[in-house]
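User: We ran a pulldown and think these components assemble together. Before we commit to crystallization trials, I'd like a predicted model of the whole complex to look at. Sequences follow.
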Amino acid sequence: MPGGYLPILIFLVLATLFPIVAILAAKLVRPAAPFVTKLEAYECGIKAASDSRGRYTVRFYIIAILFVIFDVETIFLFPWAVRYGSLQWFGVAEVVVFLAILAVGYVWAYKKGALDWV
Amino acid sequence: MQAILNSPLFIPLLLTVLIIALVPLVAGYLTLVERKVLADFQVRLGPMRVGPYGLLQPLADALKLFIKEDIIPTDADRALFWFAPMVSTLTSLTGFAVLPFTDKLYIADVNVGLLVISATSSVGILGIILGGWASNSHYSLLGALRSAAQLVSYEVALAFALLSAVMVSGTLSMQGIVKAQLAHGVWGVFANYGFMIVPFAVYLIAATAETNRAPFDLPEAESELVAGFHTEYSGFRWALYFLAEYCNMLVVCSVAVTLFWGGWLRPFPNVAWLEIPLNFAFPLIFFVGTGLACLTLVKRLIDTSQKVVLVVVALGLILTGALLTIPVVNHLMAGLFWFLLKVSAIIYVLVWFRGTFPRFRYDQLMNIGWKIAIPVGMGAVVINAVLGMVGK
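Assistant: Here's a predicted model for the assembly, 510 residues in total across the polymer chains.
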């Protein structure tokens, strides 16, 4: 029933308008007195020596990749969870196999040290 | 007029407007509750100056943020800097669109309600990353990366905890989940011989991390990262991030109540004779008692205007209690009363966490997420699956 989503769409539109309207309305009353040092990025008082968008640790990428793998697995499990009552023991056996495969990957990542944060 | 009232969109629209208008206010008062409760834990008074016992403090805070200067750093990416806090606010508000407040009071009841909530909360991470990236400050970027890594780590544990709850109710519709608990006669957390308490514990821990709250408030670790991803934000834009955070807190607590604690159901929903004491007497005692307690505090105040405010609040509470005893109103609102009461209880627990636990180190945080929460959540799914079949 696509009609059920119409209220969510309306909600989204109104919820988008709220911050826009609030920020624009605040513009009418708030002061604006910028000067050069005020507009610098927060630092110890001296301008930052380098651009902040530099290199950062590869750990974040590993976490992101692991997240994608595990999150997709859980998404696969949701339809199963809904049908769980009617699938009976067959469904339980299926999910044990599925999670066992997932667990192998998990143990591998664990042993490789992908889950350790140095 | 009749046509408008009878339209199927009338109640959702009314609720939408009400929620978007009221949630910022509720979030503001949530900060007051938090400050007051934390103050209590630390044997101090908390806000006391603005209004009686600090009751008008959130309004003063909101006004201050509204008229504060809005600074956009020269090095920042202006378009993204504009856009990022809106993403956060928008996604955190959207969760309310599928929450079941009572059996009749809801905006939308889609058959994938739970997925809508987890999807929007995932998009919320985007607001944090964009904000940190756009600011072009070292603190912001590191804070954003840390938040994002933390959020995605706990998202997986959260999903496993949700899975267990979905298994018990057999549906993803938020109303359906509550109705399944009504049909089973027990709240989700007591299902499967009480083993559902394990997924609930995983959910609570993951939800604390998802909402960036202590002891998992690493993104805002002041001692290391100033203010994390919103270091460069000020004025109302900062307020939007703040609002998003407290909205998220409300949403995750509401989801916890819906999935595990029976949503709008009263305790013992299938025991008919408890209707009168639990749905009529309890709210009456609750509101009138709170109102009378407020009245006893009036004489301790010195300022007349503050006395007036407190008397108005007390009368409002007593009036609410009286209104709830009218059968028609009670029929509609008793569910809402229970829902909000349970949500408040879980929010209190989150504040309690903040008052009790010291902050984790970042590697500890990631270890808890990946090495404890995820395996426990995964195991809980299997054990619940077996227990659920044995119980049949």
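Chain A touches chain B through 69 residues (CB under 8 Å). That may be worth checking against your pulldown data before setting up trials.

User: Thanks, that helps.
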